[in-house]
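Now for today's protein.

===
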Amino acid sequence: MAKPSENLVKAYLQKSRNALKSMEVNAQAGLVEWVVSASYYAKYFVVYSLLSKIGIKCEIHDCTITVFEYLFSDTIPKEILKDLRNSKENRVEAQYYTQELRIDLEQVIKKTKQFVLEIEKVIDGLNTEKISELQKKLKSLDSSNVNSQSQKWQNHY
């Protein structure tokens, strides 16, 4: 846990918007692997912004994703929670392996924009009371439960 930071919220929202722009530029250039990568980072950065608003600092991507899934499983649609993890897997495939990617660029762009918009709405809707509830929910997890929670989410989605 860290102190909630509006500066980090703004900075990561800007990073998300920059990744959206990069995604579109790369789509126009036909650079599929970079569209997939920028799509993931647009989503990741907006989620990191959300966690910064709560006062959560996770520097490991899988940790960020697991904390996001845990805290928002009751309030964010399952498809959106699943989409972030899938985007990370697609990014890894695109960047580290040489197989040809077959994706619908328009669909990737559309889903990414929807994801970012949905999480921005969650950020805008957070008040002091909700932030406090989410911090308590996270603190209720002890370290022995974190790994089992992560495995549960990976198997669940």
User: Anything to note?
Assistant: Residues 19 and 102 are 21 Å apart (CA to CA). The chain has seven helices and no strands. The chain has a mean pLDDT of 88.
